[in-house]
Amino acid sequence: MPGPPPTPSRLVELKGNPSKKRLNGTEPEPTKGAPRPPADLKGEALAEWGRIVPELDGLGLLAKVDRAYLVAYCEAWATFNAAREAMAEYGPLVAGRDGGLVKNPAAQVMRDAADLMLKFGSRFGLSPSDRTRLSVPSAAEDGPDAQVLSLLS
Q1: pLDDT tens digits along 39-54
Q2: Would you call 32 helix, strand, or coil by DSSP?
Q3: pTM above 0.90, yes or no
Q4: For residue 103, what are the contacts with CB-CB under 8 A and spacing of at least 6?
Q5: Burial class of 70 by CB neighbour count within 10 A (0 to 12, 13 to 18, 19+)
Q6: Using CA atoms, how far apart are residues 142 and 149, in angstroms rounded to an integer?
Q7: Cα separations in angstroms, 35 against 24, 29, 54, 57
Q8: What is the DSSP letter of 94?
């Protein structure tokens, strides 16, 4: 089946549905809410979890089954950050085997981690361009009063 994978109905709703594409009414809906971080998530990866998960959960974008994607993103951030620190300490060029200067291997590690961050982060709207494609209801539009008003309209 060529082409991109289908977009989940929840994301289609958040992005808007200008083409009036029929949504899958039987799409499974996993339990909403923030998953817990794994016990072995440490250091900068755990700190990143603490930075992004409350925000994403507040927007209603998380389900308990999103844990693996979140772990992959947070670990990629930790790897990116470690490589960034190595680049800051040693610079873009380091001594090679023969004594000449070569590209710091941390540059490739940084690039690979950045690719993973972009891949997994885009699933949660973590880049500015990803966020432009999402629209989430404000607290006033999503509260109990709004639900009553929507029934009356």
Answers
A1: 999 999 999 999 999 9
A2: strand
A3: no
A4: 92, 93, 94
A5: buried
A6: 10
A7: 25, 15, 10, 9
A8: E
